[in-house]
Write a structure and sequence with these properties.
single chain; Jelly Rolls; seven-stranded antiparallel sheet; five-stranded antiparallel sheet; 30 strands
Length: 327
């Protein structure tokens, strides 16, 4: 008989603004450094940029050995990397980048957004790659909202936006190297959805807007859910508070336990590359200072936990107004 995954703990995202960019981060934190292969989540915004703004501060910086998945909840994002990939993704779209053996990329605001301003809200999730895939060739896929299947369920009260994996005979536009399942959910009042067969998977679930009930536990916005063992996640739905409906958006991922990751090896493997990345970035900064085409927004996002940890290969992300059950 299927057993629901119990909610072990709720982790509130802490505020950690980057310049004028509103930023919250539920993981890593003092209480929780990762959930399986899920290493890091930044929640930028929501906020409104004024006209003639400087845009996002993420100029050229390196990544290696994992994947980044970026969800555009509001506003546009321009991506350009050293492997030749380039795109602008707008509201409702997703950017999926496999850093693999290593690349430098920039995530910045398009020129028209900097001129006119507007609303902006972004989620970026980092997912570890197993040891066998850490040196895979870098890759990038950008998909707009209209390329993502919107599957209607529960008599119209649930919309499942399928990004990766399969659901009810349909496939998401992105093929994950590790078989990850990823979706966003939009749930109207009373809407419910059940995810089953999760006994061998980790689940990553973050509530972006409003309140949601998950496996009998009320979860407020800006909280990450930590689950225990079980087969199902369900009864996901909106909660009513004093006669008004609280809007909600949740994000999460399913992953199957497999391969061990040795982060110490990654750190050693890239030691000789960090200098090259730093020289390139500083070179851009100097060119910019001299009036050239460089970019002085240089940052180094390197995360090397010393422990070995299991990988899980599936993922779901959800926006909603109802109840969710996971078993």
């Amino acid at each position: 008989m299927p057993v629901s995954k119990p909610v072990l703990d709720l982790h509130e995202a802490y505020r950690d603004d980057i310049a004028d960019l509103v930023t919250r981060r539920p993981i890593p934190s003092r209480a929780l450094d990762h959930i399986g292969a899920f290493l890091f989540l930044n929640h930028h915004g929501p906020q409104v940029y004024p006209p003639n703004n400087r845009g996002l501060p993420f100029g050229p910086h390196p990544h290696r050995g994992f994947e980044t998945v970026t969800f555009m909840l509001e506003g546009p994002l321009a991506h350009k990397d050293s492997a030749g990939h380039e795109s602008i993704i707008t509201k409702g779209g997703v950017q999926w980048m496999t850093a693999g053996s290593g690349l430098t990329h920039a995530e910045i605001s398009p020129d028209d957004f900097k001129r006119t301003g507007g609303p902006l809200e972004i989620l970026q999730l980092w997912v570890n790659l197993p040891a066998r895939l850490k040196m895979t060739a870098p890759a990038y896929t950008g998909v707009q909202k209209d390329q993502i299947p919107a599957i209607i369920a529960d008599e119209g009260r649930v919309t499942l936006n399928l990004i990766a994996g399969e659901w009810q005979g349909q496939k998401g536009p992105i093929s994950s190297l590790t078989g990850m399942f990823m979706t966003t959910l939009e749930l109207q009042p009373g809407g419910r959805i059940l995810f089953e067969g999760l006994g061998d998977r980790d689940v990553f679930c973050y509530v972006v807007r409003g309140d949601v009930a998950i496996n009998g536990t009320d979860v407020r916005k800006w909280h990450l859910v930590e689950f225990g063992g079980g087969d199902q996640v369900g009864d996901l739905g909106w909660l009513r508070h004093v006669g008004r409906v609280i809007e909600r958006l949740a994000t999460g991922c399913f992953q199957r336990l497999a391969d061990l990751f040795d982060f110490g090896c990654i750190a050693k493997a890239i030691d000789h590359d960090i200098g090259a990345f730093r020289r390139e970035c500083l070179g851009n900064a100097k060119a910019n200072a001299a009036g050239g085409a460089g970019d002085d927004n240089c940052s180094f996002h390197l995360n090397f936990p010393s422990r070995r940890m299991p990988m899980d290969d599936g993922c779901f992300v959800a926006p909603a107004k109802s109840k969710v059950s996971l078993k």
